[in-house]
Design a protein that fits this description.
six-stranded mixed β-sheet, four-stranded antiparallel β-sheet, alpha/beta, Rossmann fold
């Protein structure tokens, strides 16, 4: 049974950009609900609006119109400081390009989110627990150039997990990985979802979508349907 309040609720969410003398409508009045514990793939061709929607849901951008509620709070009109705090404490991000700092070891890379906001208490336990959850306890002191591609992506996932987010957004998380390694990352996402982690994965790959509970498809800035794989 789904909880009564969605974790994510978008009402009439729109995003338009001025391009030359014209207007590009990247999102057109999106209505969307995502509940805690769901594992969803956001799919669509290039230019369909899926990355724009992810940026709005991740508080990386503001909508032109409409409202966005995260965990019951309207965040669509918050200032930059408030949005930054939400990104640092409530939302975990996993990107195709990994975004690790090569001079830092695994522990230090996972520690990074805590350096951008004040955290009370001992964070070491949180960091080590996140690293353990992705199966890299034996690699804590290794740097990215000493890791495989799959291990590097696991570090990025651990970094997202360490802040204990209410939502993880992953943008093409297997795009830079070979098939076998990508499949292991998708299996890890399924295991994390089984532990209660809410996941929204942006992808164009049907294989990735088939590893999710539900697919939301986009086209021309609209949601065209949402269903199970």
């Amino acid at each position: 049974m789904k909880p009564s309040l969605p974790l994510i609720k978008a009402k009439g969410l729109s995003k338009a950009y001025q391009l030359g003398h014209g207007t590009v409508h990247a999102l057109r009045s999106i209505d969307l609900e995502i509940f805690s514990g769901e594992h969803i793939a956001l799919m669509g061709p290039s230019g369909s609006g899926k990355s724009t929607l992810m940026h709005l849901l991740g508080c990386l951008d503001r909508p032109t119109a409409g409202e966005y509620f995260l965990n019951g709070n309207n965040v669509s009109q918050l200032d930059d400081t408030s949005l930054s705090l939400i990104r640092a404490t409530r939302i975990g991000f996993v990107f195709q390009s990994f975004n690790l700092i090569p001079q830092l070891n695994v522990y230090e890379n996972v520690e990074l989110p805590f350096l951008y906001h004040n955290v009370r208490g001992d964070i070491r336990e949180k960091i080590l627990e996140a690293i353990d959850r992705v199966g890299l306890s034996h690699r804590v002191l290794h740097r990215p150039n000493e890791l495989s591609g799959g291990e590097i992506q696991r570090v990025a996932i651990a970094r997202a997990l360490a802040i204990d987010p209410i939502l993880i957004l992953a943008d093409e998380p297997t795009g830079n990985l070979d098939f076998k390694t990508g499949e292991s990352i998708l299996t890890l996402f399924q295991e994390l979802n089984g532990q209660g982690v809410t996941l929204l994965i942006v992808t164009h790959d049907p294989f990735v979508g088939n590893h999710c509970q539900k697919i939301i498809r986009m086209q021309d800035g609209n949601i065209v349907n949402g269903n199970t794989p």
